[in-house]
Design a protein that fits this description.
Length: about 230
């Protein structure tokens, strides 16, 4: 693993401790008023999301050790789990999230933990990228033996350099995304790393009014046997 990535992992370990302390401090705050309750809850949620990304970063080094087993994964179950967790964030930021399933096969060959992180980071980006009052869409479809999970936002167009990296199938390093304040280049970096490990196709489609990020995985052969 190169020095730059090792540096990222060292920073991740250093960040985890203060983030955990911040979360614990927020939990001990006395609500007193409804506004204070809202501030406390948001502090807890922000720290938990940051801790989750720090944990994802620490997993990157473990990818080389092959510790994440590939297995049949229920794709709708993963998507349902992530959307339930992040629905409050969409509502808090006054964004709508629409989910559509059109896949016939139920299982993909993946690692449930890594796939969940990919979907989580794509949806988290959709929250940041969309403007207030806009919508994001999660669409799961199936074609030619693969199931595609796509997250569409209606924010500013994705910059060409980031789009080219996603089209190539991976992001070299975490970078900020111009024209998308609050965006997480870190999330795209994590999602591309995990997708490559799972031998999944990952990329982005630029629209005039936003971007779609997607990951495409092979239908599990076990699913085919079950459906016979």
């Amino acid at each position: 693993m190169d020095t730059e990535v090792d540096g990222i992992l060292v920073a991740a370990h250093e960040l985890k401790a203060p983030l955990t302390v911040l979360r614990q401090l927020a939990l001990t705050l006395d609500g007193a008023t409804m506004r204070n309750d809202e501030i406390r809850d948001e502090m807890v949620c922000v720290s938990e999301r940051a801790i989750k990304q720090v944990n994802d970063l620490t997993k990157i080094k473990k990818l080389n050790d092959g510790l994440f087993e590939m297995e049949p994964v229920v794709v709708r179950g993963v998507c349902d789990d992530v959307t339930r967790e992040l629905m409050y964030l969409f509502k808090f930021n006054r964004r709508d999230l629409f989910v559509k399933y059109s896949n016939r096969s139920r299982l993909v060959t993946a690692n449930a933990e890594l796939l969940r992180s990919v979907v989580y980071n794509f949806l988290l980006n959709a929250v940041h990228y969309s403007g207030e009052g806009t919508r994001a869409e999660l669409n799961v479809s199936e074609t030619r033996g693969k199931i595609k999970i796509a997250i569409r936002d209606y924010g500013p167009m994705l910059p060409s350099d980031v789009w080219r990296e996603m089209k190539r199938g991976w992001v070299e390093k975490p970078t900020s995304v111009a024209m998308r304040p609050g965006s997480s280049g870190l999330g795209l970096y994590i999602a591309s790393k995990f997708s490559r490990y799972m031998h999944a196709d990952v990329g982005a489609v630029r629209h005039r009014d936003g971007t779609s990020f997607y990951v495409s995985l092979p239908v599990s052969k076990q699913a085919t046997l079950w459906e016979m």
